[in-house]
Design brief:
The complex is a heterodimer of chains A (593) and B (185). With 593 residues, chain A is α/β, with parallel strands linked by helices. In chain A, 39% of the residues lie in helices and 16% in strands. In chain A, helix 19 links the parallel strand 15 (409-412) and strand 16 (433-434). Chain A is globular. Chain B contains four helices and nine strands. Classes of the chains: A alpha/beta (593), B alpha+beta (185). Chain A binds chain B through residues 1-4, 141-142, 145-146, 149-151, 153, 155, 170, 204-205, 207-208, 228-231, 295, 297-298, 308, 314-315, 319-323, 329-331, 333-338, 340, and chain B through 1-4, 6-7, 10-15, 31, 34-35, 38-39, 42-43, 46, 61, 64, 76, 79-80, 83-84, 86-87, 89-90, 92, 183, 185.
């Protein structure tokens, strides 16, 4: 059996074959560090403990590996994730065996669902103790198997360096994802002759990492459908950001004049200010976007997986549309909706080829129809009376954008504030929106924002969170303080687990079971951590507070006391078709509560 | 409203019927690596495969095991599983064999109650199915039979009247007919 060694193998391998290196006797821990250095790692987020102590011992001899001591391993995984999303490089997190490793689980699952490249290194009990219920022993390989792209238990010290390099290639290659390396303590301690050039020992992973070849037939078929379409839309997902296909997306949209819909994780790949931009689809998408999907005769789906929050009831999703589905992962094809033309390819490559293949077109009639729908909706929502006294989410977001000249990266948590931010922030900087989309992990924003800021130190970074989620990894304020990292934190504090409360209002007859929540005095809390905190209760103070936060060094926390029972509109009830929306005005008309 | 007719309806995996599928034989070649089997079985569980049999053994390639899985599922369901399985790093190849092109066999050991006088009768009955006795004692006869799952089931049904003590089946293994190689790459 011959496994086709692709060209990329030679390219990859070349990076590691730099002639005759000195073979040196090193410990496993040192080899681990050497391999990380060779992968270009600059930051590690982690927490020491018994089974990973030899690694931490070696770490002090490798000054280019900057280690950030988090306060909980979950934050290490999220920080590595944030770093990876912002920089496109592999994020690295480290934990000890047992509880250290299990604390990574939520962060790994988050990265897995959103296809972000991280490498997790966990200590494991010494080989002789594995399988004996030893102190701090957990079967981390078993636990993380469904939430990693691949994981490795290092069984021989000779495999260690190669495993690290494989892990990095796997994490980044094809559809990115988290990879875990479990290193028994005795392997960290043992010594062997380390030959850097001999560290790639397997061809297997190149199957997983090589880019699929573009099918010219499929491109021609897709181009034909695009040329014939009367009411086409582009749906752009996270894949466009992961492949950096911003220019290609724009060129394709402009040549064909097809309006662009961006999913939650696709936001900021296409500028909100572009005349072809439509907005976000799905459960909390504006009505005109979902109506566009309902009326479309063609969907060009790029790097999205037709998640259930996007499609609503699948049988009612895009009932008139043929689908051209571009994704690097073949298993996404036909998974939810059958594609008329499946294109298994990198988004950048496929969009460039499609742009070449299609005819220029003018869909101005279709677009003006969409704009009419959009105008109808915004008129409707203007009628709604809100309590003007409170700082409102939109004014907070507008102020952040104004005070950062649109240059900020916004990291959100999960819930109402996440949807408000997705909807009401004007996204113009590519890859400026970072959130936990697939897993919907509360507690993501603060540690992820730390990773983002450390990866992009020159860019202003705002963590926007609710008063529920911020309390889930609040301990990272200490890490931010210790590291001197400046993340600006905006808490949209409504005293509720707001999204759950909203569901209770709509679907559980206002039975607010366990959703009212209290929190600390965030000004005192910030002070206790050695940081600056503010509490803003009036709308007219919003802009000044954000201005002050930007002028202040280090991490700043602003507790915005917002209206307790505002909702995210419109909303599609779970299980309904996306064109069947609960709108703001309807709630009042029909007493939908 | 639209120029194109809507595409002919075909279920994606999400709305694929959970029953009403048929049996499919998947042959997987996987690295004989610690944990590879775990990943395959775990994926089939997670992705809700209706797995019927699962057989594993060495293949003609060193350090590569051959796994035969029989599952009852819809066409789209199986296509999905194949694509998901392909993503497992330790899985080298997957072939979705149709029964028409495959030789599919399983082996069963069937231990039946038997008095001394019934022994030859049971052995003769087994012979009709190509089975032979591999163990005989005062109270039991153990037959070994090879064939399709149907054949094994028919023999088991025939032997019910004697009283079946134990049935051990290997699950299906399969191969393409003729000279065609299963691995194209």
């Amino acid at each position: 059996m011959v496994i086709a060694a692709s060209v990329s193998y030679k390219q990859h391998a070349g990076a590691y074959q730099q002639g005759e290196e000195d073979a040196r006797e090193l410990s496993g821990s040192q080899i681990l560090c050497e391999a990380l250095v060779r992968e270009g790692v600059e930051l590690l987020y982690g927490y020491p403990g018994g089974a990973i102590m030899p690694f931490y011992d070696a770490l002090t001899s490798y000054p280019t590996l900057r280690h950030v001591l988090v306060r909980h391993e979950q934050a290490a995984a999220h920080a590595a994730d944030g770093y990876a999303r912002a920089t496109g490089k592999v994020g690295v997190c480290v934990a000890t065996s047992g509880p250290g490793a299990t604390n990574l689980v939520t962060g790994l699952a988050t990265a897995f669902m959103d296809s972000t490249p991280i490498v997790a290194i966990t200590g494991q009990v010494a080989r002789a103790f594995i399988g004996r219920d030893s102190f701090q022993e957990t079967d981390v390989i078993g636990v993380t198997q469904p939430i990693t792209k691949h994981n490795f238990l290092v069984r021989n010290i000779e495999d260690l360096a190669g495993t690290v390099h494989e892990a990095f290639r796997l994490a980044l290659g094809g559809r990115p994802g988290p990879v875990l390396i479990d290193v028994p303590k005795d392997i960290q301690q043992n010594k062997t002759l380390y030959r850097p050039s001999a560290s790639i020992n397997s061809l297997e992973y190149f199957r997983a990492t090589r880019s699929p070849e573009l099918s010219p037939t499929a491109i021609a078929q897709a181009a034909k459908l695009i040329d014939e379409a009367q009411r086409p839309v582009i749906m752009s997902g996270h894949g466009v950001i992961l492949s950096g296909a911003y220019d290609e997306l724009r060129a394709f949209a402009e040549k064909t004049t097809i309006p662009v819909i961006t999913t939650l994780l696709g936001l900021s790949a296409f500028p909100d200010t572009h005349p072809l931009n439509l907005g976000m689809p799905g459960m909390h998408g504006p009505a005109h976007v979902n109506r566009a999907i309902g009326a479309a005769d063609l969907i060009v789906g790029v790097g999205l997986r037709f998640d259930d929050r996007v499609t609503g009831k699948v049988s009612e999703f895009a009932p008139h549309a043929r689908i051209i589905h571009i994704d690097i992962d073949a298993s996404e094809m036909h998974k939810v909706k059958v594609a008329a033309v499946p294109l298994v390819a990198d988004a950048k490559v496929a969009l460039a080829a499609l742009t070449e293949a299609v005819q220029p077109a003018n869909h101005s009639v279709w677009l003006s129809e969409l704009r009419t729908w959009e105008a109808q909706n915004s008129e409707r929502s203007r009628d709604i009376k809100r309590d003007q006294q409170y700082p409102d989410p939109t004014s907070i977001l507008e102020a952040i954008r104004a005070e950062t000249n649109g240059e900020a990266i916004i990291v959100t948590d999960v819930g109402q504030h996440q949807m408000w931010t997705a909807r009401h922030y004007t996204w113009t900087r590519p890859n400026s929106h970072i959130t936990s989309g697939g897993l919907g992990t509360m507690g993501f924003a603060l540690p992820a924002a730390m990773g983002v800021k450390m990866g992009m130190p020159d860019v202003p970074v705002w963590a926007v969170a609710g008063d529920g989620g911020i309390q889930m990894n609040i301990q990272e304020l200490a890490t931010l303080r210790q590291q001197g990292v400046a993340v600006k934190v905006a808490i949209m504090n409504n005293g509720y687990l707001g999204m759950v409360r909203q569901w209770q209002q709509f679907f559980h007859a206002r039975n607010y079971s366990e959703t009212p929540i209290t929190g600390p005095d965030y000004v005192k809390l910030a002070d206790a951590y050695g940081l600056i905190g503010m509490r803003i209760t009036r709308r007219e103070d919003v802009q000044a507070a954000i201005h002050t936060a930007m002028e202040t060094e280090g991490t700043v926390i602003i507790d915005f006391v917002i209206e307790p029972e505002s909702n995210v509109y419109p909303m599609v009830a779970p299980g309904s078709g996306i064109t069947n929306m609960i709108e703001e005005s309807r709630e009042e008309d029909t007493g939908h509560d | 409203m639209t120029k194109h007719a809507a595409p002919p309806w075909r279920a994606g995996q999400v709305n694929a019927p959970q029953d009403g599928g048929r049996s499919h034989i998947l042959v997987l070649f996987a690295n004989d690596q610690h944990g590879a089997l775990d990943r395959i079985v775990g994926l089939l569980r997670r992705r809700r495969s209706n797995m019927q049999t699962f057989a594993i053994g060495r293949s003609e390639i060193p350090n590569v095991v051959r796994i035969t899985v029989v599952m009852n599922d819809s066409e789209v369901g199986v296509e999905q599983l194949v694509e998901q399985l392909r993503k497992i790093v330790d899985v080298r190849h997957i072939v979705n064999l149709s029964y028409a092109q495959a030789v599919a066999r399983e082996l069963a050991l069937i231990k039946v109650n038997s008095t001394a006088s019934q022994q030859s009768e049971i052995i003769e009955l087994g012979a009709l199915y190509g089975a032979h006795a591999v163990d005989v004692d005062q109270e039991t006869v153990t037959l070994e039979v090879t064939g399709t799952a149907d054949k094994v089931e028919k023999l088991v049904a025939q032997l019910q009247s004697y009283g079946i003590r134990e049935v051990a089946r290997t699950g299906c293994v399969a191969m393409t007919r003729g000279a065609g190689e299963i691995i194209k790459e």
